[in-house]
Here is the input.
Amino acid sequence: MTAQESPVTEQAQAPVDTHATSGTGRHVRFRVSRFKQGDQRPHLQDYDVEIAPATTVLDALTAIRRDQDPTLLLRHSCFHASCGTCGMRVNDKEALACVTEVSDLDCDTVKVEPIANQRLVSDLVTDMIDFYDRFRAIGRPLLRQSEAFPDSEVAPGVEEHRRYESCIECGLCLSACPIVASDGRYLGPAALAAAQRTVAEPRGGDTFSVLRLTDDAQAAWRCHLSFECSEACPSNVDPAGAIMFIRRKLAGQRVNSIFGRRS
Amino acid sequence: MDRQPSAPKVVIIGGGGTGGALAHDLTQRGVRVTLVERGEITSGTTGRHHGLLHCGARYAVKDRESAVECIEENTILRRIAPGSFELNDGLFVAVTDAEADYEKVFFESCQAAGIPVRRVDRAEALRLEPRLNPELRCAVQVPDGTMDAMRMPLRFFATAKRNGAEIRPFNEVVGLTMTDAASPRAVTGVSVKDLTSGRTYEIGADLVVNAGGPWAGKVASMAGVDVPIQPSPGILVAVRGRYCNMVVNRLHASGDGDIVVPQRELSVIGTSSWVTDDPDHLTVPSDHVEMMFREGSMMIPSIRGAEVRATWSAARPLIGERGASTGRELSRTFKCFDHAADDGVEGFVTISGGKATTLRAMAEATADVVCRKLGVDRPCMTREVVLLPHTEYYA
Here is the structure.
């Protein structure tokens, strides 16, 4: 939705809850993966929720927990695609529940499952320890230079324009990656993308040791370039592009080392 | 840390920023801490705000106490959580004659509160932030910043956990255990349901802290006491793209839709204010969404055509009497309630109010009360201890 599409007249209609989960008459069935510690395997459970035009999958799930089933567990925090906690699989595709509008899915039944390739804790909650373990060796840049407007000056007292890195650590790339699914030893797209950011914008860091860590059969060279990670990423990180960048860098270094130079 | 098995034990209810900062403060003072939260950590109000690292300027004219708290905590957080903020400062912009007239009292009030301020003329303001309304009259630069609303508080949890605190998300308090009717009333622990397994169990404690934020009233009612918490939601709109690098505020007395907080690849327009009794059911009123664009475009005209990334609401845990109608008249400062003094219930303390920027100060004030009650004579360490990176929470 853009601002132009929303009614901005001064004599607007009576205010409505744009994220309503009841009273709208538009019913959608949510088929949600359920799992508790001690269960053999997850099973799907159906819930009926009414939706409004801007109701998100996250709104529907929190409404289910509030109004129908207080035992339904999920992770969420920021509600605007900045924290990455509500990554899940919606109709078999990786998505952030907070920015997935149900009406955009254009279906009467929405299947919701936890992200794949991570240890399941309960229902839609996975343990993120494995995800963060992959960053430990690489390091995790948090702030980057901001793309400021060409004519903007930096205010006195401010070092330089900064913004957070784009990666929101949601795990959707690991969930979508076919290599991670078949081989848990693969470093995976999120950590390789973090490595690429360190190399592309060193900020005083040691790019040589980071590059050396990626130069491994279970790191940059393991990827099959299926691009599932970049497809799944909700935050413009493009891990597949980052992996190609690293490979070019590594290949360049090898050429240099043959001729006795180290870049 | 010499945390003996005999050290006093505290249970904290609520995994928001306040609970996390309190867990950190108490573990630093040698107290054994278990924190329980019914959802994921920071799933209530904490993760949902616009991410403003306040410098206090927004409160300088009307609420000196809040302003001073903010600039002190802003300075401390920069020191103890390095690398966690987009430190691009903030601009308050006057776009009307009335606002230009207001600049003098605003500027002087900031100075009086100890907030570093700098006058910026129209031409310079437009060089700093080219997308600002070209009609602007003048601006003031202040040390605002942007925080990651989840990852900054997560550093308190990470540090507390490393120092021995037990953090239990998805564990919901279903009741408080109390002394039997014959003795003076006292809270002796909590009954908890582990929602990942369905198992219910009890945790005994020398003291229980209610850090439920807007849910603090519900938690307090389990002990039969009342706390004057008024959940006060506001709406936020995140649009794609950075429309500014500095935090842009409207130079006027606090009002609706008067701030744009750039964050990551987004810009967040906030906010509005109303009151509710149910913080679990926050609406996103269509007229408030429109108001964010209308008011936001007074500061940055092109934001009106921005692509919406998300619209949502967050509930502030304001302190005040029930019956207030908009929430704006309620105090922003926090309060710690010792229910022994107020209600005759021993072993039970509530912390509420405040804001993300003052989470450490809220924790310090609460830990002072807790330690005094428990006979722990250890000073607060949290002004100096540098926090672990957020990633260490997942270790």
